[in-house]
Amino acid sequence: MLFAVAVFAPLLGSVIALLLGRAIGDRACQAVTIGCMALASVCGVTAFVTLVYGGGSPGVVSLGDWIQAGSFHTQWALRYDTLSAVMVAMVTFIATLIHIYSIGYMSHDRSIWRFFSYLSLFTFAMLMLVTADNLLQLFFGWEGVGLASYLLIGFWYDRPKACAAAMKAFIVNRVGDLGFAVGIALVYATFGSIDFTTIFAAVPAHQGDMYQVFDVSWRSFEVIGVLLFIGAMGKSAQLGLHVWLPDAMEGPTPVSALIHAATMVTAGVFLMARMSPLLDFAPGALEIVTIVGASTALFAATVGCVQTDIKRIIAYSTCSQLGYMFIAAGVGAYQASMFHLLTHAFFKALLFLGAGSVIHAMSDEQDIRRMGGIWKLIPLTYAVMWIGNLALSGIPPFAGYFSKDAILEAAWASHAGYAHYGFWCGLVAAFLTAFYSWRLLILTFHGKPRADAHTMAHVHESPAVMTVPLILLAIGAVVTGFAFAEQMLGHDWMAFWGASIQLNPANQVLHEMHDVPELVALAPTVLGGLGIALAYLFYMFAPGIPAFLGTRFGAVHRFLLNKWYFDELYGAVIVRPLMGLARTLWIVADAQIIDGMPNGVAGLTADGAEQIVKVQTGSIAHYAFAMLIGVVFLVTVYLFIR
Amino acid sequence: MNQAGFPLLSMLTFLPLVGVAIILTIRGEEAVVASNARWTALWTSLLTALLSVVLWAKFDPSDGGFQFVETAEWLPAWGITYKMGVDGISLLFVMLATVLTPICILAAWETIQSRVREFMIAFLVLETMMVGVFASLDFVLFYMFFEGVLIPMYLIIGIWGGPRRVYAAIKFFLYTLAGSLLLLLAVLAMWSAAGTTDIPTLMTHAFSPRVQTWLFLALFASFAVKVPMWPLHTWLPDAHVEAPTSGSVILAGVLIKMGAYGFLRFSVPMLPDASQEFAPFIFAISVIAVIYASLVALAQTDMKKLIAYSSVAHMGIVTIGIFTFNAQGISGALFQMLSHGVVSGALFLCVGVVYDRIHTREIARYGGLSDRMPAYAITFMLFTMASIGLPGTAGFAGEVLVLVGSLKISLWLSLLGGMGMILGAAYMLWLYRRMMFGALDKIDLKGILDLSPREIAIFAPLVLLTLWMGIYPSSFTGFFEASVGRMVDHHQAAIGAATKLAGVLR
């Protein structure tokens, strides 16, 4: 019951704000949506605590029928187990803080009611996603998240860039969604059901099922795994379908925080964990998951090192951290990926909101080349940004240290051949992460002020509605690591996760990861430290070096600055050819060829009619002659053919 | 005689004609006549809608056969009777027609200013024909209604249409008529083979496979034009562009469903072997329709054309679903038809709203409307999302069921058919962005007004239906589940019998 309240309270707030927003005013909208969110987070956290520590039992809250056709049955239902309870507690808590923060950040906006309504809608969609009891309802939340992100990225719809980014996010996500939807259909074709309980119970029975693709038989599980992962790639911005994420920065900063921390990009990782009972029997699909995840982690980290927009750097770091989570899922350590998801949610929300606070202080400046020298002016923001970056870089005892270390240890400990690719990519990415984090920190806060005097005069610490959420998130970024590490990943992980994560008995990676060599366990931290040191060297002590490297290796620098030219590639290979094809199909195929035939026939008929008109001379002699021909013809037919 | 206790279906069918008779008796000044004609038409159509609710309430969804059956002697010597009846498949189409008609009449309230009386007469006659198509259980009767639809629609486009209305109307007429001739031939052939034109009897009559092939082609010619399937679709954009708003709504909402309904009622159950044989061909042109029409929609600069092409793409999903011959595919196709009827109708109404104000359908002439028209923006967004097939709106259930059904045939069919998911998002969001987003800098848009109370009254039932069909679709699928199940069983039995026979012969 509490659980249902946690899920539906945000919807209530959103609908009230959307329909009555203009009538009741901005203040009332904020009060209603935040009231609903606070209620949701109280219920959500309580539900989580009762389930895991209070001896509560998991279950399903059924809400009614949804779609039925033949044997295809789906229900609206909320699944209450550790996996969903953790997510609900985290999502509601962080989303509430972001709502509160938005009071301050969006105080000058024209349509505050709309913003808060969308924020709550976004939260609701994510909650439906994580509490789904079947794949189709998960898809409902999945698409709902897509819609809400579209609305929020394009919130300032009078800016062309924001509109373009919103459309891009939705359409790129749809590419993944198609894979996901077909995956759901294949799950149904394989299991005859899409309810989690039924599927998971039937996994052993269907292990050997085969499915034809390209005239080759594949194990059904592998095909399902790959299709679902394509969906996850879209939502979680993995290499190839990541192009929407950096552009999503066009939305207001609290939206970025929500997208990156709580409500959107984590959906793909969650899907992997939710489907773990099936995926764990699909080694081929997991190999793809690991390789794509590892490549994304490395790719995004390299791009993050040269970006100059403060939000963009953090966005690429999200992309990279999601890669880590997929590495973990790919090597079978779903618990570790969920753990990293949780810690990441706190420190990433913190970083984004902190960046928002900086942007707010700098009169909407986002370019770190035009910042600097402000750490004394906004000390609190500076402090929380430190905490966030320490957590992100995996420095003990901050939250990210525990989860990132666990992932790399699991990658090392896994027996799968591809797992070491994940380990090495992750290790290099850890170094780069620390480097670009401190590059951001130093360029933003230290050195001589590079902004104009007018902006500098206005630099001020944010109001309490913004700083209090920052402080709470900072606390989360410190404690979530050691508070949950042992429970989620220890030898006794079953006590925490219950039946929500069921693995292949052969998968012992969670036990083996505790026995990796010391050097492996230490390496990420050491490399993180080195990354920080390098950033200090480059940007604090010898600022000539990066400039020199930039010109010396101009090609590399441009390649990274342009994000490996993915946008250009897609533009040249997909978007422009398709638009050209669309115009050709319309103007040539439709208007000339297909329409040409009937129009041609019509023309022919008209011309023919004109010719025939000439026969109608009005002279009886002509008509009589024509009749005679007819008679002769008929008589001939009658005589000779009969 | 039937569970209603009175000839409900005949009343539903011919009640609009009573309204026509009343309108014909109206005399007086032009303004008075116009106003009275409007009100009479509205009340007649509302009464019909109300009556159809009785049909809906008394229908027994657990029975997959025909209900409310009425028979009367007509041409006994020829085996032709006047026979009406609905099953789960046709019931909801009757409802669709009766619900959309009053909405269309309301939509034409102010936009149609010339020859109002004749317009209303045409619309009521059209309603009679549409209900008749879905309610008749005799092939000859069906044929009469099916062809009868052409006349009022031809007039609606040709008289009250846009500048190129005559071209569009004649194109519409000729395309459909050409197909219809073959339909007539098929009717005659079936009648001479089976000795009756009674639809339930024909469904159980086993035509020989060779005859089936020819009959299938003849029926296909007629129904494929109506759907319309690629490459017979080009009449549709022209007809839509030139038709007045309410004409477009009824064309997209009900008329093009008649083709797909024909496949479901005649081709698949009566010609199972030929249907099976032609299924791959249908899949191929349906997939082409989805991708081709979506791409063409992407390139459009005219709002109505864009939505017309999106209809072609959506109907491609429908034909894929029908020819999967499984419960999910057929249910999905049916649901997609219903949702498309509501959603595309609503989208044409959305276009009508701004057309009435600015008098252009050129997308480039708009931009930034959200600022001045927030209620319109929300409504339009809802229908845009429903057209894209967002879960929770009407468009989703049908699409996903067809996807599930088609995967049983092949992965590629469902992947390629599903391309509409991506391309649909592209062209609809691109349309929405160009119209609603951006800065409001065009001078003639600065004074544009938001939805009027009349327009809100038009949209309210459609909004409710769209959400209802999205959140609780089982209340609709429940109506046709039994009938679809019967149809699937019948098909499998027929195919099974044919293969067995082949085995014996071999």
Task: Give the secondary structure arrangement, pairings included.
The complex is a heterodimer of chains A (642) and B (506).
Chain A: H1 2-52, E1 59-69, E2 72-80, H2 82-105, H3 112-131, H4 135-153, H5 160-191, H6 196-206, E3 210-213, E4 216-219, H7 220-235, H8 244-247, H9 253-263, H10 266-274, H11 276-279, H12 283-304, H13 310-330, H14 334-361, H15 379-393, H16 399-413, H17 419-445, H18 453-458, H19 464-489, H20 493-497, H21 509-512, H22 518-541, H23 544-552, H24 554-561, H25 566-594, H26 596-615, H27 620-641
Antiparallel strand pairs in A: 1-2, 3-4
Chain B: H1 8-25, H2 30-58, E1 67-75, E2 80-86, H3 88-107, H4 116-135, H5 139-148, H6 150-160, H7 165-194, H8 199-204, H9 209-226, H10 235-242, H11 245-255, H12 257-270, H13 272-298, H14 303-322, H15 327-358, H16 369-372, H17 374-388, H18 394-407, H19 411-417, H20 419-436, H21 453-471, H22 474-505
Antiparallel strand pairs in B: 1-2
Helix pairs in contact in B: 1-2, 1-4, 2-3, 2-4, 3-4, 3-11, 3-15, 3-21, 3-22, 4-5, 4-6, 5-7, 6-7, 7-9, 7-10, 9-12, 9-13, 10-14, 11-15, 12-13, 12-14, 13-14, 13-20, 14-15, 14-18, 14-20, 15-17, 15-18, 15-21, 15-22, 17-20, 18-19, 18-21
Overall description:
- The complex is a heterodimer of chains A (642) and B (506).
- Chain A is built from 27 helices and four strands.
- Chain A has helices spanning 2-52, 82-105, 112-131, 135-153, 160-191, 196-206, 220-235, 244-247, 253-263, 266-274, 276-279, 283-304, 310-330, 334-361, 379-393, 399-413, 419-445, 453-458, 464-489, 493-497, 509-512, 518-541, 544-552, 554-561, 566-594, 596-615, 620-641; strands at 59-69, 72-80, 210-213, 216-219.
- In chain A, a hairpin with a 2-residue loop joins strand 3 and strand 4.
- In chain A, helix 2 runs antiparallel to helix 9 and helix 13 (310-330) packs parallel to helix 16 (399-413).
- The mean pLDDT of chain A is 86.
- Chain B is mainly alpha-helical.
- Helices cover 76% and strands 3% of the residues of chain B.
- In chain B, strands 1-2 form a two-stranded antiparallel ribbon.
- Chain B is globular.
- The termini of chain B are far apart.
